[in-house]
Amino acid sequence: MGVVAADDPQTPEAEDLVRFVRMVSHGLRNPLAIATGMLDLLAQLAGAQLDDESRELLTRSSAAVHRTADMVLSVQRYIGAQHRPLQTGPVDLGEVATWVAEQLDPTEVVVQVADGLPTVTADRDMVEWVFHELLDNARHHAGGDGAVAVTVDGRRDGDRWLVSVTDDGAGIPADRHEAAFAEGERLERSGGGLGLGLTTVRAVLARHGGEAWLEDAPGGGLRAVTAWPA
């Protein structure tokens, strides 16, 4: 499935696909949310009374439900990034990055958002998807012990803004940077998922007339760069 460029018209087939995916995603999210809530409640009420094996089974079951819910969202974003009509307006990238970072567990990832990130003309929902995928990617794939340190910063580069998400993990080989954007491609450090996150990021940037790529971070780690038209 190819990336839809910023000036491509939305075909009736694409609109039908977006509606279908939205309907299926909504139908799946409700029972998944109920299952997640019930498992979390069970852990709170009965966790101390369970033996080690039962607690482990409960923990693994809860993690599996959470992963499934994440996969449903991943598919919805993947299709939406390519085919949903753009709804553009002024978007403060720093405000969106901060909001997304606040949704993450600080014991897993600590995000520092630099001052001075620009306001661009974009679809706010899709900008949220970009930061969610990049920050979640850092959280899952950076490796090492303790919380992952991630920095979000930006700079003007001619007629575009370069906004980077940099982690302090082990990075990936340079010859795999481009391959990581392929549909279904999982980074070697990945513990799961569908491998659609970076594909979604690149699709969103393409729809906005921008670009996305990976590069080695100074001192180690991985840097994801997004280029937004100024």
Q: What's the gyration radius in Å?
A: 19 Å
Query: CATH fold name of the largest domain, please?
Result: Heat Shock Protein 90
Quick check: average pLDDT?
Answer: 84
Secondary-structure-based class equals alpha+beta
CATH architectural name of the largest domain: 2-Layer Sandwich
| Low-pLDDT segments | 1-7
- Strand count, sense and closure of the main sheet? 5 strands, mixed
Order of helices and strands: HHEHEEHEEHEE
The count of helical stretches stands at 5
Number of strands: 7
Can you list the strand order of the major beta sheet? 2-4-5-7-6
Which CATH class of the largest domain? Alpha Beta
**For this structure, what is the CATH homologous superfamily of the largest domain?**
Histidine kinase-like ATPase, C-terminal domain
Give the total of domains: 2
Explained architecture:
With 230 residues, this protein is α+β, with helices and mostly antiparallel strands. It folds into 2 domains: 12-83; 88-229, Histidine kinase-like ATPase, C-terminal domain (Heat Shock Protein 90, 2-Layer Sandwich). Helices cover 46% and strands 20% of the residues. It is built from 5 helices and 7 strands, in the order ααβαββαββαββ. It has helices spanning 12-46, 52-83, 93-102, 124-141, 197-207; strands at residues 88-92, 109-113, 119-123, 148-157, 160-167, 211-216, 222-229. The strands form 2 sheets. A 5-stranded mixed beta sheet has the order 2-4-5-7-6, with helices on one face. It has a two-stranded antiparallel sheet with strand order 1-3. A hairpin with a 5-residue loop joins strand 6 (211-216) and strand 7. Residues 1-7 have low confidence and may be disordered.
